[in-house]
Write a structure and sequence with these properties.
four-stranded parallel sheet; 210 residues; alpha/beta; globular
Length: 210
C-alpha cells in the first residue's frame, strides 16, 4: 500500500478523487486531506510541491476562467519545478462536469430525462488538438443547480441541490452529491465523455505503478 495526500477545493471534489482511486488504484490510500479552498490552492502550491518529495500529493482543481488545462496548471505553478509525485489535475470546466459525463446514472439520480442532459463533443480549448468534454452553456455547478436540478421530477433533489438567484448551491448540495459519487457514479462511462477526467485517471494509474 502506498500513501498519498489529497487536495480538493470542496467535499464533492475530494469525493471524486477518492472514487477514482477506489476504482483504478485501490492500492493507494489517503494519508490525509489537505484543506484548500479554490482561492487558497495557488497560495499553498509551493508547500504541496515540497510535501510531494516525501509523500505523493494528488490535487484536483477547476478550470474556472482559464482557456485550457495546461494554462491553468502553468498559472498555478508559476515557474515552480513540479515534483514528479505532485499530481496536478484540472477538471474542465469544473469537477461537476465529470459527474454530468456519466449521463445515464446522473440523469437517473437527478430525475431528469436523459434527452435534457448535456452531451459531450470535441472542443478546441486554446491548443491545436480538440479534446472531448461536456458541452455546457454555463459553468457546470451553476447549470446543475440553477437549471437541471430545478427540472427534477424529485422534490428532494430540487430542495437539496436546486438554487435560484444569487445563491450558489442548494442547502444540502454536498449531502446529496457525495453519496451519489461514492455509490452510483460510473467513472468508466464518464471518462469516455471527458478527456480531462481520463487524463487524471491515467496519471493516478502511472503513480500507482511506480
Amino acid at each position: 500500500m502506498r500513501e498519498i495526500y489529497l487536495v480538493g477545493e470542496d467535499e464533492v471534489t475530494k469525493a471524486i478523487i477518492r472514487k477514482i482511486m477506489a476504482v483504478y488504484t485501490p492500492e493507494l490510500t489517503v494519508k490525509g486531506e489537505l484543506p484548500a479552498r479554490g482561492s487558497e490552492i495557488k497560495n499553498k502550491i509551493a508547500n504541496f510541491n515540497r510535501l510531494a518529495v516525501h509523500t505523493p500529493v494528488v490535487l484536483l482543481t477547476d478550470l474556472d476562467t482559464e482557456d485550457c488545462a495546461p494554462v491553468a496548471k502553468s498559472n498555478l505553478l508559476e515557474g515552480i519545478e513540479q515534483n514528479e509525485d505532485f499530481i496536478v489535475n484540472v477538471a474542465v470546466d469544473e469537477a461537476e462536469a465529470w459527474l454530468l459525463a456519466d449521463q445515464d446514472c446522473f440523469s437517473n439520480f437527478l430525475g431528469v430525462d436523459k434527452e435534457r442532459m448535456p452531451t459531450s463533443a470535441l472542443q478546441k480549448q486554446g491548443g491545436s488538438v480538440k479534446r472531448r468534454e461536456m458541452q455546457l452553456p454555463l459553468k457546470a455547478s451553476y447549470y446543475l443547480t440553477h437549471n437541471l436540478a430545478l427540472q427534477s421530477s424529485k422534490d428532494e433533489i430540487k430542495a437539496q441541490i436546486g438554487s435560484q438567484g444569487r445563491r450558489c448551491k442548494g442547502k444540502e448540495y454536498n449531502t446529496a452529491l457525495v453519496p451519489f459519487i461514492e455509490k452510483e457514479w460510473d467513472v468508466e462511462k464518464a471518462r469516455v465523455n471527458s478527456d480531462s477526467l481520463d487524463r487524471m485517471i491515467r496519471r493516478l494509474i502511472r503513480l500507482n505503478e511506480k
